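Good day; I would like, with your permission, to put a structural problem before you. The record follows directly beneath this note:
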Amino acid sequence: MTRERKTVTREELFEQVWSKPMTKLAKEYGLSDVGLAKICKSLEIPRPERGYWAKVEAGKKVQPKPKLKKHKEGMNSQVTITSSPQSEANGGLAKRPIEIIPVPKILSRPHNLIEKTQAALKSAKEDGKGILIPKNKIYFDCRVTSGTSDRACLVMDTLIKALEKRDITVKIEKTDNRTRPKTVITIDGEVFDICIEEKIRSVEKIPTPEEKKKYADSWWWKPSVDYVPTGMLTLKILDFYREGLRKTWSDGKVQRVEDCLGRFLEGLRHAAVAQKAWKKQMEDRKLEREEREKRNKELRRLKHIEEKKIEKLTGQVNNWITANNIHQYLDALSEKTNDVEGLSEWISWARQYAEKLDPLNKPQNLALKESEIGYWY
């Protein structure tokens, strides 16, 4: 799957934004209109007001096209727009016909995972909302009450068999840090957690006359609530956060979860494509960061070596000047004080020191050596 990259200047994007609706322009770049709007905001490109193009089409008066302000110092004058994985994922699979996966009226020859789930639910205790919490950790992630457990098992049995028929693996994984096991789907190499969940409605509990009297003057007291099972089920892809992709399929006024298994399967396919694209994007970014760090590291190394060279050269020049100054000083000193006792010995030592100090006496040490470079990261 390829992802297009288009580089456009700030001025060009401004003209495009005012030449056609954002939704159409965003499709050309393989983005959502929200994503394109964020790019415009970062470049301080003004956009038409809401309803602008409807007014244009109706021949009504619209806001005049503003002038594009000069970009601020440090602001990019152009941007490279990369088509989003979500856009490609939807586009690549949108034309596939939705499969119909019929759910039978009764559970027959259940899948072994469903058999384990049924056994776990039978001995399960209820939490504060009436949701069954089995002790056994080998069961499908089924967050339902006793009233919908049979229906949930029938739906999930149909789904598991349909997935495995299409070479999509389903397994249950125990977890140490969760109260429930994970139901793991592997599709096209991508892994997702799924569950079926019943919606629970909370209703305010009507206090008794005794409670009303007891807490009449208590500002902190609030009526408790009762939790009422609705019997409405939802299929979910858990912990999946790709913009623009669906993650839940629920009972509605007309629709039932049983009617959504084909769309749920298609949603898993979209999720797998988007997940692959996201991973590829993250890998590309990682490689870009590593390459950028490699370049920066080399620049730091070269800069460090240059600083060491300058430091050594400056030291050599200073030593050379100091050595020459010592010799000149000693010459002048010898002329005026040649009869001072013990001075000749001191002058001899000083000349030896100046000779050692003079870098020209050791030309083999003038260039910077590898051992002198030191730590530079």
Observations:
- The chain has three domains: 5-83, 112-283, 288-372.
- The chain has a mean pLDDT of 85.
- The two ends are 38 Å apart (CA to CA).
- DSSP finds ten helices and ten strands in the chain.
